[in-house]
Amino acid sequence: MRFIPIADIRPPKNTFVLKGDLGKLLGKLEPYRLAITLEGDQGAGKTQLAFQLADAFAETGRTVLFYSLEIGANSDIIVCNRKDHLSPRNIPKVTVTEESTLKDVREGARLFDVVIIDSWTKLDVDSSEFDKLRKDYPDTIFIVLFQRTASNKIRGGTKPLYDAGINIEVVKADNTFVNNYAVATKNRYGQTGLQYNVSEKVLQ
């Protein structure tokens, strides 16, 4: 067992803030064991927000691997999200796959700086594996989407929401999509309660 005198702990030198309103929403990030969960109703805009996060992290120079387990890698939806949410200069830094096993995710975590999983349910593994990923690949940033059941519960249990540094709820305000917003319900790095309009890509 290793004990560290608190006086010996120094602030990390590699903290960073994403550009724009996403940066304001998330705050100053520390990449060590950073995991972000996105949860919300179907049609709220979780995938769109995930692509916006992919663009924002790619803007920092990081490589991003997007596990498109819900819709597949060759869907027109992927093409539309690329067009709407990825800037041309960041497209070369983003890779999409539909490989869907935990072994595949672990391989991706070894090769890429940021791993996005859409969604965790499709991996068909216990929720305890979420925290193992964070600890086994502490320098990889994980962004993981979770679906809700008809009874408004998180599929697979809420344990990952406790393990993650940031939990974002994506709210379906109405059927137009233009009013849907994301709000950080937990944030170890910044404020909670700020509302980010997913369609307009701005804080409300």
Major sheet: arrangement of strands: 3-2-4-5-1-6-7-8-9
Total count of helical runs of at least 4 residues: 6
Note the main sheet.
9 strands, mixed
**What is Rg?**
16 Å
Q: What percentage of the residues does DSSP assign to strands (E)? A: 15-25%
How many β-strands, per DSSP? 9
Which regions are unreliable across 5 or more consecutive residues at pLDDT < 50? none
State the end-to-end CA separation.
Answer: 47 Å
Shape: globular
Which class do the helix and strand fractions yield? alpha/beta
Q: Mean pLDDT across all residues, rounded?
A: 92
Relative helix content: 25-40%
Order of helices and strands: HEHEHEHEHEHEEEE
3D structure, described in words:
- With 204 residues, this protein is α/β, with parallel strands linked by helices.
- Helices cover 27% and strands 22% of the residues.
- The protein contains six helices and nine strands, in the order αβαβαβαβαβαββββ.
- Strands 3-2-4-5-1-6-7-8-9 form a nine-stranded mixed sheet, with helices on both faces.
- The chain is globular.
